[in-house]
UniProtKB/TrEMBL annotation, chain A:
WD repeats lie at residues 99-140, 244-269. SUPFAM superfamilies: WD40 repeat-like. This is Mitotic checkpoint protein BUB3. It comes from Tigriopus californicus. It comes from the Eukaryota. Keywords: Cell cycle, Cell division, Centromere, Chromosome, Chromosome partition, Kinetochore, Meiosis, Mitosis, Nucleus, Repeat, WD repeat.
From TrEMBL, chain B:
This is BED-type domain-containing protein. PROSITE patterns: ZF_BED, ZINC_FINGER_C2H2_1. InterPro entries: Znf_BED, Znf_C2H2_type. It comes from Tigriopus californicus. Residues 6-65 form the BED-type domain. It comes from the Eukaryota. The keyword Metal-binding applies. The keyword Hydrolase does not apply. Its main location: nucleus. Residues 121-156, 194-239 are annotated as: Disordered. The lineage of its organism: Eukaryota, Metazoa, Ecdysozoa, Arthropoda, Crustacea.
Amino acid sequence: MATVEAGSRSSSEFQLKNGPADGISRVRFAPNSPQFLLCSSWDSTLRLYDVQANTMRVKFLSGGPLLDCAFQDPIHVWSGGLEGQLRSADINSSTESIVGTHENAIRCVEVSQELNVVVTGSWDSTVKLWDTRTNSCTGTYTQPEKVYSMSLAGEKLVVGTASRKVWVWDLRNMGYVQQKRESSLKFQTRFLECFPNKQGFVLSSIEGRVAVEYLDPSPEVQKRKYAFKCHRVKENGIEMIYPVNAITFHKDYNTFATGGSDGLVNIWDGQHKKRLCQFHKYPTSIASLAFSNDGSTLAIASSYMHEHEKPPESIPEDAIYIRTVTDQETKPK
Amino acid sequence: MGRKKKKQSKPWCWYCNREFDDEKILIQHQKAKHFKCHICHKKLYTGPGLSIHCMQVHKETIDKVPNSQPNRGNIEIEIYGMEGIPQEDLQEHERNKGGQSHSLSSGLVLNANTHSIIIGFAGNNDDEDGPEAKRAKSDSPASGLAPTPPVVGPAGPLGGMVVPGLPGMAPRPPFGVSGIPPGWGAPAMPVSSPTTYASHPTGPNGARPLFPSAAGGGAASSSGSKPTFPAYGDTNGEKKPAMIATTTATTRIVHPPEDISLEERRAKMPKYAPPVSSVSAVSTSQQAQHLHHQAQLPVSSQHLMSGAMMNASIAAPPMGMQTLPMTSQAVTGAPMMANPFLMGRPGIPHQMGGMPPQMFQPPPMLGGPQLVRQPFPAAMVGPAMSAMGPAMSAMGLPAMSFAALGMPPASAAAAMVQTPFGLMGTAPRFR
């Protein structure tokens, strides 16, 4: 694919053409390349974009809204959604197949390349493992509640569920739960993402707050955990508190970006407890964020998530912005 | 829990239940937080001192100690640091701390939010922490809440770091304490009873139920008015979602009051889940029938294209059998065709269940889903992906454009069907 500069491209940021027609549930960059971006949507499509050329390369249509997607490798991608089916797609041949089902919607899909396993978390309160080589389910593991968010740190699987439970599993030994925790935040878990260095995870709640937690249960390590407020705006003396919907890590710097329903993206240095930068306000809620593997690019999905009891009169279009980030924005000072 | 001794020695503030590493800091805290005159900002030494100061200097009466927990506002009691705290409160504090883990005592503000660090030891946390925490909260709303307000400065991580010595003093909004407790109090309860409590978002102050049973009533009444409730998931049908206190005097959480994820809520929207789904297991054949009819509509249009596909699928007979297990989950086979969005819903399967099982089997049925899922491949078999652009935009209406795409290259369609099967051959068995 020739690299074509899109006309609308501004200095560091541009909007992807051919965006999904409905809510964006997840964006993910391909492993090892900032060129390809995968996107699952409530419009029942799974789309692959060539970010550099700003074109959509492939689109798969499924039977229902998709809630998550993930790359296995640059060619093979996985997705799951409301219909509870786990789908595997081959980008080169543009073929897709249903690998298996959950009894309720699949909320999360994660892939461990090292272990050749796909992990799905569902509202049926189970996690299932799937062998990518045989496309078969290798186990079903009951979780305390509906799975809301999941992340992998090496062989560790961190599952965040309803009722603020956080269970930590070891993919090599799923016989028992390694750790049963409760979220340190007092409100519903919205998203969680493991550190690239696998030592812990960052968890966000609907109440404009983010917790940095460590997996090592020893008291010295646990002492380092903390939480902070963010994605809040004071309006007329009332503090508006927004859900923090997305977290993504910069693989090299261990810094992370958070996106909230306030339409803002912040980048944090978790180690030094500092905010590195805040981008301009996007048209609506940040539904998903993804750093490219090399940390050069940030994909920002701005997509209304129906946080309000009464939806606003006009809902901004669902859009994906691709932003080239600088060291100044992402590197600890 | 070998740290009992240390914990006992931690000084704490009677007015707001905060713990401190050092009584000197505690006294500073009290002077700045609780004994400061709101008019002239003079720092007094005790509650009565403040009251007398205000009376004499400003001719104002103070009825409660500023920034105190609701039941700790007594201006008459003379408290200085740890001195003067009523005996029973001392004891209660000690007792409550048993349930709260050590994170409370950490002087670092940042940790304050983590009222419990529960790790490992399956089940332990519930037995141990749950009841304790609950008691703490119902006995005195104050006790369990104390750690919360100071959590972090408003500016994120930075805020928390600024004042390790005087945690939360600067960052806390002036009336934060009195404003926050109700909001925090309710959500804190799920610790012990995650799904049963409820709170009234607008008037949290005395309305907060102390016991789950009481809360159950509240939850029932509020969620009873929501007709589209149990769309996805049968588990939903039985338990009402907990409610979040989204509104306090000074804050508003931009989130619906039901304590379910935005996605779950969205999935219940008519757009994704036709109203029928709310019928769920309930009889109400009427509505179900109605839905059924609705569902039929799309079917017919899709049948057209599935017809086109049928040949291809027949060409590979085993496919029908293979696909079955994959999509079997009771619901999927037939309803999927009727309306992809209906799948997995409890209501539909019952309807479909009325049909003889073979309904699931004939190739046309299976051809449908395959097709629906794979519109693209058919069109995309060619190498030139970029050419796809226009074709895709036409995909907005799956059914219609589908037929258009699917028909022309019959051979391409066949090819595409086969490919998935190659993949699927290994797939079906998943348990």
